[in-house]
Design brief:
Number of helices: 7
Family: Belongs to the UbiX/PAD1 family.
Mean pLDDT: 96
Binding site for dimethylallyl phosphate: 154, 170
Helix content: 25-40%
Catalytic activity: dimethylallyl phosphate + FMNH2 = prenylated FMNH2 + phosphate
EC number: 2.5.1.129
Number of strands: 6
Radius of gyration: 15 Å
Domain Flavoprotein: 5-174
């Protein structure tokens, strides 16, 4: 099952819909998900959705507490296809960029990088400062992929769900998780 495990991190940036949709799409694709939500991510959940913490947890196969740095996903011997942080706050991006592993989400991301697995960060912030750009550069130089959820208007999305679906589909593509319903340019 190891080749079909995905770690999903949800941090406190706006856009928790991306993390929720990623959990739904991974389940549909038959991928086992390991979820870690930061306290700020839980705050965002309460602001942006009607889901309870329990509702969100039930979308994942396994849920880990952010303080549990001894969890399986904190070890390189726990094999996964990679990790998606959706949404990814600048605070989380910076912690990952500079190996400040003060919680399970950032530790799991660090493990993903050190094991040379795919790490995709759906960074949610604008405008960007030089510090933000430097952190993005650092993560990219380590092998991570910074993928802000930028809408593809050539697809003529009709709803916010269309925009979220496409962004999440592209992120999961980067992790090798097939998305058969993803609209693609020229197809």
């Amino acid at each position: 099952m190891s080749e079909r495990r995905l770690v999903v991190g949800i941090s406190g940036a706006t856009g928790i819909a991306y993390g929720i949709r990623a959990l739904e799409a991974a389940r549909k694709a038959g991928v086992e998900t390991h979820l870690v939500v930061t306290p700020a991510g839980q705050q965002t959940r309460a602001y942006e959705t009607d889901l309870s913490a329990r509702d969100l947890a039930e979308m994942a196969d396994v849920v880990h507490r952010p303080a549990d740095i001894g969890a399986a996903i904190a070890s390189g011997s726990f094999r996964t296809i990679g990790m998606l942080v959706a949404p990814c706050s600048i605070r989380t991006l910076s912690a990952i960029a500079y190996a400040n592993n003060d919680n399970l989400l950032t530790r799991a991301a660090d493990v993903t990088l050190k094991e040379r697995r795919r790490l995709v960060l759906m960074v949610r912030e604008t405008p960007l400062t030089l510090a933000h750009l430097r952190a993005m550069t650092a993560v990219t130089e380590m092998g991570g992929i910074v993928m802000p959820p930028v809408p593809a208007f050539y697809l003529r999305p009709a709803t916010v769900d269309d925009v979220v679906d496409h962004s999440v589909g592209r992120a999961l593509d980067l992790l090798g998780i097939e998305q058969p319903d993803l609209p693609r340019w020229g197809e």
